[in-house]
Amino acid sequence: MNQTLSIIMYHYIRDLSKSKFPKIKGLDINLFVKQLEYLTKHYQFISVNDLLSKEELPLNPVLLTFDDGYIDHYTYVFPKLRERGISGAFFPTVNASKNHCVLDVNKIHFVLASVNDITMIVDEINQYALENKESLKLDDLHTYKSNIPKSRFDTDDVVYVKYMLQQGLPLAARNYLSDKLFKKYISVDEADFASTLYVNTEHLKEMRESGMSIGIHGYSHSWLATLDEIGQSFEINESVKFLHNVGVKDCELTIAYPYGSYNDVTLKIVANHNVRIGFTSQVGKADLSKPLELRRFDTNDFTAKFKRDISGVNPK
Length: 316
Prior knowledge:
CATH class of the largest domain: Alpha Beta
Structural class: alpha/beta
Helix content: 40-55%
Distance between the termini: 22 Å
Shape: globular
Strand content: 5-15%
Largest sheet: 7 strands, mixed
CATH topology of the largest domain: TIM Barrel
Number of strands: 11
């Protein structure tokens, strides 16, 4: 069996020219269509079922995955895949799709996309951290800044905002600030905003019945590796229950780790659910000998004109 596979990871895909948030870091639907045309010429599309069957894969196989369960995926992506006979893998988050809660990661994305000057958000975070340094037992700001990882796609200020609101500050502080900033810059009606941002159960049922794969992406889109076994079990168990409601069978279960975060505890829990395929956010071709730790390419790994393929080799 071919032991390597190119897997592409997508998030926001929309008509950016008509979006209320044209600065959101998404892929324009027209560019997505061009990517499909390019991939059709140089690769052979496979499905999750092809992986689960363990049959021989074709030459230059590629699998498309879509994280977070955005309505974009139903409105724009699903029709384009269906008309071409392509099966994609979609990973919705329970609290967003079922309970109409906006994920913290998305609150941050839309706040960043709504302001003209990111330093405004940086200043608000810094002011809060300084005012609550003693009560929350926070580190000095320079300590947080020294821990920030480099990003392939974001500016230093954007990385700082994401780091502080996703990892750096204590959970209660992160939640407070994310909610405050979301209400200030985006909407005071979170449920209404969520209903326009995420797919619902009926969307997912239709997609699955049309040949799409629907997989685990957690209950609240938490960094799984930061949770204890009880916390991780809750995230995964609730996601499995939700997928059962959509019609997904146990033999079809797959997982895309939120933020690409997982550890040995995660792998044990998913193995107990007989999950056979796991997608990470580590960049590179997937090694099929490690089915629960498959690497993926981000859509941004493509060049604008697709002069070379995602492995970095000129296509033949």
